[in-house]
Design brief:
It is a single chain. By secondary structure, the protein is of the alpha/beta class. It folds into two domains: 208 residues, Rossmann fold (3-Layer(aba) Sandwich); 363 residues, no CATH class. It contains 25 helices and ten strands. The strands form two sheets. Strands 1, 2, 3, 4, 5, 6, 7 and 9 form an eight-stranded mixed beta sheet that branches. Strand 4 and strand 5 form a beta hairpin. Helix 9 crosses helix 16, helix 23 packs antiparallel against helix 25 and helix 24 packs across helix 25. The radius of gyration is 27 Å and the shape is globular.
């Protein structure tokens, strides 16, 4: 919760809904209003995410704010548009803040006119005014408000300018019993609204000289979308991303691990030793000492670094350029250029990446992209690859796993792209201008994502560690592992303890490595595994189905049959490739 208003009007139980086109700055605005207290939730019956938080208006009380998905119309057929419309109807927010991009006023006003026709209390947040002036356009907020009949507040969502005034105005509008006379009193047809939006924009915008700074952005845009220079820049960015993951993530892992062992572990052990029951004592040690240590040292550092980098790339506007640049490559896989964005998100987490495939134009490309996302090393699998192979085998072998996964993704995409029926479409997408990311927004976005990761991951880590500790203390672990020995030790050539950890990896991927550390009894995998075994273990973990949450979202998006086929296929592929790698690598003198 954040103080967002110097003065306010008491509006007990008030809800304010943020609505606008994609890329108009709604996320930055709600981050400014609610701070790090915002939470992500799914709209009931869907997988569409809504960011919600509370804004403290000081003496006058609390205002609840919801950031709805970016849409172009409230009467469209896409799931995002249906969710936005259903939210307005069912939740009945007391006021609507329509966030509008001043650089694309005419296009944004089409949605504005639809919202005005709802006859709800409403305020327009006019964003990106500085960028509009750079392009030689100045929007007259007073004139726009006079024409539309709704208040217009100029803001800077990234820097947080005038957001206090915006919320105050929204609260006032929600308290008003009479609406000002508005430009329309009933919904118009699409053609008329487009014409009306164009006329309003023309009357509200004056031409100015503009600034030279826009030329720099134009040059950068040209440089990063050119096929030759853009490809080089893309390769450099990806190389820097993985270098940062390895260097910074490994450094943080060491620092966190040493701090935990020096300060927290002795204190926790002393408390647990007070428990009289030896089985319970052993279980608690696995749960609260080994489990927490594994989660903090192995998972958090790499997830934190990745989400921070992705936040920078999102805020600066580079991800859509990446999609444009990769369009030809994606078409070779039978995909739309936009598919690169969900696939890029897949390096963070497979669940939101699969959900984001809704931006793709048809079911065929959604399914194909989702299958490839399942093979992409998410942040949890990255934690396993770097936390196991990178730390104990060598960075070159960690890169070898990434190279192999990339080859597997392209081979699978090429084969499935030919096999799956359906039409390939060209790329049509909006390019937001380049913007300089602000540290505050990057850190806030990173924290929200890491917080959600901790909330979802650590209960499973505690549960998994406790179950393993209890089974080991009772002497039942060996009997559970026995049936899997022919597969684990015979084919994959892994130690017996690896079998049960691969099962836990279905819950969350990093859990497999954390449980391996717990069962092995040492933070150093080399104490009980060879370098070849560490490599094969990480390779198998990296290929099979990411986690149970991914299976769940595949089921919701594509049905249980497709989810089951994808899951079974990746598990079979992982076992097959893992066994082959265990035999081929020593034959070539590697890891022998």
């Amino acid at each position: 919760m954040k103080d967002c208003c110097k003065t306010g009007i008491k509006l007990k139980g008030a809800d304010i809904a943020l609505l606008g086109n994609p890329n108009v700055g709604k996320s930055a605005l709600i981050n400014q209003l609610t701070g790090i207290g915002a939470t992500v939730s799914n709209y009931p019956g869907t997988t569409v995410e809504i960011l919600e938080g509370e804004c403290n208006s000081g003496k006058e009380g609390i205002v609840r704010i919801a950031d709805l998905p970016g849409i172009y119309s409230i009467h469209g057929s896409s799931e995002d548009e249906l969710v936005a419309w259903n939210y307005i109807k069912s939740s009945e927010p007391k006021a609507i803040i329509n966030v509008v991009d001043a650089t694309k006023l005419e296009r944004n006003l089409f949605l504005t006119l639809q919202l005005i026709a709802l006859k709800r209390p409403m305020v327009i947040a006019l964003n990106f005014n500085e960028e509009a002036e750079e392009k030689g356009m100045k929007v007259n907020a007073e004139r726009l408000s006079e024409i539309l009949g709704v208040p217009v507040v100029k803001i800077n969502a990234v820097r947080g300018l005038q957001v206090n005034k915006l919320v105050e105005e929204a609260v006032k509008q929600s308290k008003s019993k009479k609406l000002k006379k508005r430009i329309i009193s009933r919904e118009q047809g699409n053609k008329k609204n487009h014409s009306l939006a164009s006329s309003i924009a023309e009357k509200s915008v004056s031409k100015t000289r503009g600034k030279k700074t826009s030329n720099i952005k134009d040059y950068l845009d040209s440089l990063t979308t050119d096929q030759f220079s853009g490809t080089i820049i893309l390769v450099i960015i990806m190389a820097l991303l993985f270098a940062a993951l390895f260097i910074i993530g490994s450094g943080l892992s060491g620092i966190i691990g040493n701090a935990f062992q020096s300060f927290a572990a002795p204190f926790l052990n002393s408390l647990i030793n007070l428990v009289p029951n030896k089985v319970l004592q052993e279980t608690l040690k696995y749960m609260f000492v080994d489990g927490i240590n594994a989660g903090l040292q192995i998972a958090i550092p790499f997830v934190l670094v990745f989400y921070a980098i992705i936040a920078v790339l999102e805020d600066c506007g580079y991800l859509p350029r990446m999609a444009f640049l990769m369009d030809k490559t994606m078409h070779k896989l039978g995909l739309h250029g936009k598919a690169v964005i969900p696939m890029m998100l897949g390096f963070g987490c497979s669940v939101p990446a699969i959900i984001s495939t809704r931006v793709l134009p048809n079911p065929r490309e959604r399914l194909l992209t989702a299958i490839l996302i399942v093979l992409i090393p998410c942040s949890a699998r990255t934690a396993v690859i770097l936390g196991a192979v990178g730390l104990f085998v060598g960075w070159q072998y960690a890169l070898l796993i990434y190279a192999f996964l990339l080859l597997l993704i392209f081979a699978s995409g090429f084969i499935l792209g030919k096999a799956l029926p359906g039409e390939q479409l060209g790329i049509i997408m909006e390019m937001p201008p380049y913007r300089l990311p602000r540290a505050k927004n990057v850190l806030m976005k990173t924290w929200i994502r890491v917080k959600d990761f901790i909330i979802s991951a650590f209960p499973l880590i505690f549960l998994g560690s406790g179950v393993l500790g209890g089974l080991k203390a009772l002497g039942l672990l060996e009997s559970i592992l026995a049936p899997a020995q022919p597969l684990i030790s015979g084919w994959l050539l892994l130690p017996s303890v690896a079998g049960i950890t691969l099962v836990f990896g279905v819950l969350r991927k990093e859990l497999a490595l954390e449980m391996l550390v717990v069962l092995g009894g040492s933070a150093s995998l080399l104490a009980f595994m060879s370098r070849l075994q560490i490599f094969v273990f990480a390779l198998v973990v990296a290929i099979y189905i990411p986690c149970i949450a991914t299976v769940g979202v595949l089921n919701r998006e594509f049905g249980w049959k497709k989810a089951a086929i994808i899951s079974a296929s990746t598990i079979s592929l992982a076992i097959l490739i893992g066994g082959i790698a265990a035999r081929i690598l020593p034959a070539f003198g590697l890891l022998s």
